[in-house]
Amino acid sequence: MHTTVGIIGGGPAGLLLARLLHVAGIDSVVLERRDRSYVEHRQRAGILEQATVDALRAVGAGARLDREGMPHDGIELRFGGRAHRIDFPSLTGGRNVTVYAQTEVVKDLIALQLAEGGPLLFEAEVISIDGADTGSPVVRYRHEGREQILTCDYVIGCDGFHGVTRNAVPDSVRTTYERTYPYSWLGILAEAPPVYEELIYAHSERGFALASMRSPSVSRLYLQVPNGTDPGDWPDERIWDELDARFATHIDPGWKLERGPVTSKAVLPMRSYVTEPMRYGRVFLAGDAAHIVPPTGAKGLNLAAADVIVLAHALTRWRETGSTELLDAYSDTCLRRVWRAEHFSYFMTTTLHTDPEQSAFETRLQLSQLERVATSKHAAAELAENYTGLPLSG
Ligand code: FAS
Ligand code: PHB
Fold first, then answer.
1. The pLDDT of residue 342 is above 60
2. Atom 2 of ligand 2 has which residue's CA nearest to it?
């Protein structure tokens, strides 16, 4: 089989790229290792920046998002027994975010691709990519019990952190940067109506907690836990009690979450990771295949979207004019945004989480930083601009 653009991975990056190329009249094939149900039900991100929403609308995936997505104009920070709201539009010239789960984004994009896009093959595991530095790279994959070949003009690795495409970039030209954190998140989904209008990020000496949502009847909540935590050690009541303890404030000591059946429970490690460059010859990397951020800044999914928006624009320029100027600039263009998001995610994570080893001095520094955000519109604007997403360039 031959295609112009071979896309490895049917997560948000791969699926959005396929749709962006389809709209531009460029053919592609998506190879996804897992089955459809697994990909559609993998619990991950929940916050979409405006640029991500705009891209989904532009490729025809905006209808349900516009019906069911929840626009949010701010977040609440809780620390030192107090609460402070960060208002996005007034601090960013009108920007906000939309709460719409990654599972729903993936469902919408898969339905579109199957209905009117190029081939999207599930249970098609890519084994290797050969000829990255030639004009016709070759993807070897296993599908329906047979090893098969896809020849391409370009190959895009959208295969996430555990994918294979990064291996096509020789160690001699590749640099990786990594930081792991001394804590993880225990994430739950619960059939419990959120008693809060907007997301709550809580710093407490017991550890970090985040209250998000999936709908008016489904809560999405996270607790900082030690690395290696077994979700089985956290029965539902223990989770609810700990969440209430971490969200407690002096101003409303009776504030409690509404409880309900926990339908999903998982521990998520925290990692910062970047691999440079995001391109070698005819092979490009996008999304988690190239970079990972701790989810505290809600950047992961949005960075993946930003990469493929830039890449689709560059491939369209190449198809229309033959110029590879934007393709040649892809890695540098994306890495500027990636490193900004890496820093913001690191800032949110290290400011809001209580490292078990940290000193009392470091805790006071965290509280001082949070106080600064709560009392300075300039400091609040810096957080709001990064959280709602900086303008796309390139
Ligand atoms: P993905 O990992 O989503 O998709 C890669 C796809 O490639 C997968 O479907 C995989 O099956 C496929 N693949 C891998 N190897 C392959 C091969 N050899 N052949 C074919 N296919 C292959 N971000 C947030 O903003 N907020 C969150 O709360 C949040 N929570 C997360 C929780 C978890 C457990 C994880 C792992 C990530 C979380 N993230 C979160 C980040 C997440 O949303 C990613 O940023 C997002 O999924 C990136 O999308 P992709 O780059 O498409 O990678
Ligand atoms: C989520 O809703 O899953 C979510 C929201 C904000 C984050 C991380 C995860 O920072």
1. yes
2. 46
Residue 32 belongs to some domain of the structure: yes
What ligand is nearest to the CA atom of residue 46? 2
What percent of the chain is predicted at pLDDT more than 70?
Answer: 99
Task: Report pLDDT for 89.
Answer: 98
Residues 158 and 42 in one domain: yes
Residues 236 and 258 in one domain: yes
- Burial environment of residue 341 by CB neighbours within 10 A (0 to 12, 13 to 18, 19 or more): buried
For the chain, what percent of residues have pLDDT higher than 90? Answer: 97
Among 76, 102, 222, 293, name the best residue to mutate to test ligand 2's pocket (greatest count of ligand atoms within 8 A of Cβ): 222
52 alpha carbon to ligand 1 midpoint, in Å?
16
**Ligand 1 site, residue 14, Cβ cutoff 6 A:** yes
The residue-averaged pLDDT of 269-295 equals 98
* 387 catalytically annotated: yes
Peptide bond preceding 277 in cis form (omega within 30 of 0): yes
> For residue 191, what are the domain limits?
181-269+356-387
299 carries an active-site annotation: yes
H/E run at residue 240 = helix 236-247
- Cβ 125 under 6 angstroms from ligand 1: yes
Instruction: Assess if residue 79 is contained within a domain.
Output: no
pTM of the model: 0.97
Contact 311, 372 (CB under 8 A): no
